Amino acid sequence: MKRNSLLVFLVVLFAALKCYAAGPIYKIQIKDYIIHPITGEYLSKAIARAQEEKAQALLIVLDTPGGLLQTTHNIVKEIMNADIPIIVYVAPAGARAASAGAFITLAAHIAAMAPSTHMGAAHPVQLGEEGDKETLEKIKEKLFKKEKKEEKEKPATTPMSEKIMQDTLAWVENIAKARNRNIGWAKKAVEKSVSSTAQEAKNQGVIDFIATDEQDLLRQLDGKEVKLPSRSVKLNTKDVNIVPIELNWRQAILNVLINPNIAYILMTLGFYGLLFEITHPGSWGPGVAGLISILLAFYSFHVVPPNYAGIILTVVGFLLLAAEVFVASHGLAAFGGLVCLAFGALFLVDTPAAFLKVSLKVVIPTILASTAIIGALTTLILKTHRHKISTGPEGLIGEIGEVDIDLNPTGKVYIAGELWNAQSSEPIPKGEKVQILKVENLKLYVKKV
Question: Quick one: pLDDT at residue 114?
Answer without folding.
Answer: 97
